[in-house]
Design a protein that fits this description.
The complex is a heterodimer of chains A (about 375) and B (about 250). Helices cover about 70% and strands about 0% of the residues of chain A. Chain A has about 375 residues and is mainly alpha-helical. Chain A starts with a helix and ends with a helix. Chain B is of the alpha/beta class. Chain B has a domain of about 170 residues: 3-Layer(aba) Sandwich (Rossmann fold), CATH 3.40.50.300. In chain B, the strands form two sheets. Chain B has a six-stranded mixed β-sheet, sandwiched between helices. In chain B, strand 1 and strand 2 form a beta hairpin. The chains are: A mainly alpha (about 375), B alpha/beta (about 250). At the A-B interface, helix 8, helix 9 and helix 10 of A face helix 2, helix 3 and helix 4 of B.
């Protein structure tokens, strides 16, 4: 009993430490941007704040993948779709907030609609000028799509690689749809040229810092929700489904219900991540739906350590940090580096960065095991 | 609905896969509290019979009734389990990454809904029941270890413990003695005999010594239907059974 409470305390301590680090970052980054003078070594430039903010959004997206993949074995290769839908919902609000300040000066229609010679706002654009409605749509649209998709997929018992393939098809289909001008989401160019959010100028440093803090808060809240779920009895059922789905069914659990619940929750988290991403990057376009994006997120989670939550956050930040540096230094080899990273992690760090930090299942352990085997073989020979 | 007092009632059940009749006009009745052994050569339809009872496979024709009132052919695995039918797989299947204790906890009879389990806490009664079951399957000392660390025989026992935690009225047990030492096999036979009486148990087994230890009514399946039924001595003396087992 002492054993389990010890583990419990260690886990609780780790998650408290994680939330404290997030809090510290939420305070430090804005201070280092706004209060520290520009010449100082400790100054963070404004583009840096938005860049870090983008990483935080990616971290929340990675967290949403880890919740379903790490704990329930659902490998979604289409989560970029939910992220992009959340991003578009926010983008639509920001477009409406531009009002008459667009290039064409139309008080209601966004520029791209004037350009396409549209006379009135499509029905699905109504309501987005009202911020709370946009907030609702940010979680509702990905949530409803995930519910409908999951309802059919999980009831038909589509699992494993087949599920992964249809999630890819989902995001690919949405990408093609959003590329079309007739869809009414700005086609190829997407939504951009945003002016302000809730009346605050998006180019202003304080707004950027505000968005950064909001992203950190969303990540902290998302992490807390995920942690609550995975530590509950329902979370243990999810792991049970991951490890032995039919055993779980024969115990009387309705597996599809659990999968649907966690898939919808995950899609909503991804939607929130996308919504915070759009104003910080300044644009949302159909390329966010591209199937390769969704696959990349899975790589982040694998690098950080699947089924650890914190690992997903670390993986997203490490890989994207490396991506920013690498694409700056040697843009040609980034994709090779990413591929090598994934192969390397799978071979030598099956439990990712978190496994390495905890000292189990990391490269060290593997090498030690190999040495032990060699040692045993040698002893065997000597005995003979 | 047919009039029957049997706990489980299979009548004229047939199921075929791509024209092959895995179960052919099978009829089988299990009384409350009965312990029954089902034997038969490979491909006799033992596992398919379990699949039909537990809602995994739908029969083409025939009746499968639970307590004479519930039509089991219309239920899925989860609802069959909730009705009170537990199933142990041939290969021991436990939740490897969960602790032994959590394996039992997940199996305990309780509301299985997502939103109930999301907010569920372990009650005192549950804790006592977990202790009791761990004691019964002799895994108290290993309760905090992941189930993956157990030996093959211990996993078999853990799975039986999980079945009992469901508080089923009927247990379907597929080759419980596979991979066990002689001592473990003997203990398992004793455990199953203890369980029966309060609950009904159907044991599917290859091992004749084990069936002898159980000392119960035996049903011999062959090519999807019942070939012979009675005590082990009776069926062993049946020339048709001898022919099936020894070849023709």
């Amino acid at each position: 009993m002492a054993h389990s409470s010890l583990i419990g305390r260690a886990v609780a301590a780790r998650s408290q430490a994680f939330l404290l680090v997030l809090l510290a970052i939420a305070v430090l980054v804005p201070v280092m941007n706004l209060a520290v003078p520009a010449g100082s070594f400790f100054h963070i430039p404004s583009y840096g704040v938005s860049l870090f903010g983008k990483y935080v959004c990616y971290a929340l997206l990675a967290l949403s993948i880890d919740l379903i993949w790490g704990y329930c074995g659902i490998l979604s290769l289409g989560h970029g779709a939910f992220f992009a839908l959340g991003g578009y919902a926010m983008g639509m609000h920001l477009m409406r907030e531009i009002g008459p300040r667009g290039v064409y000066g139309d008080p209601i229609l966004p520029d791209f609609m004037v350009f396409l010679n549209w006379k009135e706002l499509p029905w699905f654009w109504h309501g987005f000028d009202f911020f709370p409605f946009a907030l609702l749509m940010i979680v509702a649209v990905p949530g409803v799509l995930a519910f409908v998709f999951g309802w059919f997929a999980f009831r038909s018992r589509v699992t494993g690689v087949y599920l992964s393939i249809i999630t890819q098809a989902l995001t690919f289909a949405l990408m093609l749809a959003f590329f079309r001008n007739e869809m009414g989401f700005g086609g190829n160019n997407g939504l951009t040229d945003f002016k302000d959010i809730l009346g605050f100028d998006l180019q202003h440093d304080t707004t950027r810092c505000g968005l950064f803090v909001a992203s950190i808060l969303a990540l902290g809240l998302g992490y807390s929700i995920c942690r609550f779920v995975v530590r509950s009895k329902a979370g243990k059922v999810l792991v049970a489904i991951r490890d032995a789905e039919s055993r779980t069914r024969f115990l009387g659990y309705r597996v599809e219900g659990y999968k649907l619940f966690v898939f919808v929750l995950s899609a909503m988290l991804a939607g929130v991540a996308g919504a915070l991403y759009t104003p910080q990057v300044g644009i949302i376009n159909p390329s966010e739906f591209s199937p390769a994006n969704s696959i990349e997120v899975v790589v982040w989670v694998a690098v950080g350590g699947r089924g650890t939550l914190i690992g997903a956050v670390l993986g997203a930040i490490i890989v994207n940090g490396a991506k920013t540096l690498f694409t700056g230094w040697f843009p040609e080899i980034w994709l090779f580096a990413l591929g090598a990273l994934f192969v390397g992690v799978t071979l030598f760090m099956p439990k990712g960065v978190m496994g390495l930090l905890r000292g189990d299942g990391g490269g060290g352990a593997k090498i030690k095991l190999l040495l032990e085997k060699l040692g045993a073989a040698r002893t065997g020979r000597m005995l003979r | 609905m047919k009039e029957t007092n049997a706990l489980l009632y299979l009548d004229n059940v047939t199921v075929s896969f791509d024209g092959f009749k895995a179960i052919n006009n099978l009829s089988l009745y299990i009384e409350p509290g009965e312990l029954r052994a089902v034997i038969g050569p490979n491909g006799a339809g033992k596992t398919t019979m379990m699949d039909i009872v537990t809602g995994k496979t739908r029969p083409d024709t025939g009746d499968v009734l639970w307590k004479g009132e519930v039509d089991l052919t219309k239920e899925d695995e989860a609802s069959v389990a909730r009705l009170g039918i537990g199933r142990k797989f041939q290969r021991p299947t436990v939740f490897e990454t969960h602790t032994v204790e959590d394996n039992i906890r997940l199996a305990l009879k309780a509301d299985r809904g997502v939103f109930t389990t999301l907010f569920a806490a372990v009650t005192g009664a549950e804790k006592a029941r977990i202790d009791e079951l761990l004691n019964l399957v002799r895994l108290t000392a290993r309760r905090h270890e992941p189930a993956a660390d157990l030996s093959h025989g211990q996993k078999q026992w853990l799975e039986i413990g999980m079945l009992l935690a469901q508080e089923p009225e009927l247990l379907l047990v597929d080759e419980p003695a596979a991979g066990m030492t002689d001592d473990e096999t003997m203990e398992t036979a004793k455990l199953l005999r203890d369980i029966a009486g309060e609950r009904s148990v159907i044991v599917v087994e290859h091992d004749m010594d084990f069936v002898r230890m159980l000392d119960v009514r035996v049903t011999v399946l062959h090519e999807g239907s019942v070939l012979s039924e009675g005590t082990l001595d009776h069926v062993s003396a049946d020339p048709r059974v001898v022919e099936v087992y020894l070849g023709r």
